[in-house]
């Protein structure tokens, strides 16, 4: 493809974004619904787990922390393969009929970002626990009772953790395409559509989705930085 063709594709992509192409909007809507649902599930598990690891001391805690840190780098295709095997017809959860559905993609993204939320929230709340430990103990609050307090007092810092998780989920392609199947009108997200449309040579739609995805990721990171700065000013 020469420069002129690439320029034409970019102009066409901008037109799709400007006019709100229905196919692009449908893909965008599904991507956001899947990523937000996965983030909600991961937050319900990851944030309390991170808070508990920040305050509790028990045999094997260090091993759990090391495992969480290692799972932050879990290859998406490996996670996708494991979930595929679980949800396939011959798998233990095959009777649920979730494979190649948006629900399967939610599960895949949640599995990937839960360790990230748990590990990052542990780091954030461990510092907060060191600051509040004596005060909370003086009120008779042990580690278990301290978890809700830490989650509430660290809510601004934890927002940056959640945004990091959302950014990771929204950019996922490997696991999602394995368990979702990239079915048009059903399980096609921005990342899987970009891969497909590029392979088909439909660069305008791929570029349009890429531009939207970049705006979302940059916006999430900018918001995370603003919240982090606000939290630092509040702490200061």
From TrEMBL:
GO terms for cellular component: plasma membrane. The chain crosses the membrane at residues 36-56, 63-87, 93-120, 156-183, 203-224. It comes from the Bacteria. Keywords: Membrane, Transmembrane, Transmembrane helix, Transport. One of its GO terms (biological process) is transmembrane transport. Residues 28-224 form the ABC transmembrane type-1 domain. InterPro entries: ABC_perm_TupB-like, MetI-like, MetI-like_sf. It is found in: Cell membrane. Belongs to the binding-protein-dependent transport system permease family. This is Tungstate transport system permease protein. It comes from Belnapia rosea.
